[in-house]
Amino acid sequence: MALNSKSKLTLIGAIAAVLIIGLLVWNHQKKSVADELVIGISPSFAKPLQAAAEEAKQQGLNVKLVEFSDWNTPNITLDHGDIDANFFQHQPFLDNAKKETDFKIKAFDVGAATHVGLYSKKVKSFDELQQNAKVVIPNDPVNQGRALQLLQQAKLITLKQPDNFLSGVNDIAENPKKLQFIEVEGPQTARAIDDADLAFGYPHYLRLAKTADPESALLFDSNTDKRFAILFAVRDDYQDTNGKLRKFVDIYQNSPKVKQALDADFGAKLWFPGWK
């Protein structure tokens, strides 16, 4: 049946209305995505960042946190421009990553820093460690050096250059107990603790993995070295449009709710602000 002129106009009007509504929805979605701040994170840092994101949302800032399980992908993804920033690494780690790649990444600001420790489920003191005991350490150059310095602090080894935080296992000068080193990715040290006599560990990863009490280390590092504070990192060409990242970082650094989340996640005595 043919449509009369009035019916045709009505149909055209309805189609036009649908198209206009669709265009408005698309523009709104596009604007929402454009206004969204996307940050790549390690799961172990999630809860304090989620607390900051919830507070940011109340202030009109939408933040999307994307979790990565390893320590390589966050920088690759950031360098490709798929996220606005990442939060998982400290400055020595970033410096080493840039040295080994062509990443164009820089620090935007800093977050919390945490103490690290030596943990064991098999001995209660270093004196109980047997010859050829198995020790878990990270496999990346920077965090491995940090682990070896802590083993040196425990008087279990001596390094050729005692103050070199980039020391590797080949830089061990003395190893009287002939410790056997198991090298794993940093995030996996928390899970590898069950397979070793001693493990270098990060309190926040241990809490996440639930493999050991984060406060039960036989020894914690003795200083508050802010070099190891976790960074908000961005591309060299990053433009902080409308101050979105600046606003989020300010919330992270100053919010009482974020501090509560940091205390709960890391232990009130096991973290310190890298920005102060």
TrEMBL record:
It is a lipid-anchor. The chain crosses the membrane at residues 9-26. The keyword ATP-binding does not apply. Pfam families: Lipoprotein_9. It comes from the Bacteria. It is found in: Membrane. Keywords: Lipoprotein, Membrane, Palmitate, Signal, Transmembrane, Transmembrane helix. Its main location: membrane. GO terms for cellular component: membrane. The keyword Heme does not apply. Belongs to the NlpA lipoprotein family. This is Methionine transporter. It comes from Acinetobacter bouvetii DSM 14964 = CIP 107468. The lineage of its organism: Bacteria, Pseudomonadati, Pseudomonadota, Gammaproteobacteria, Moraxellales.
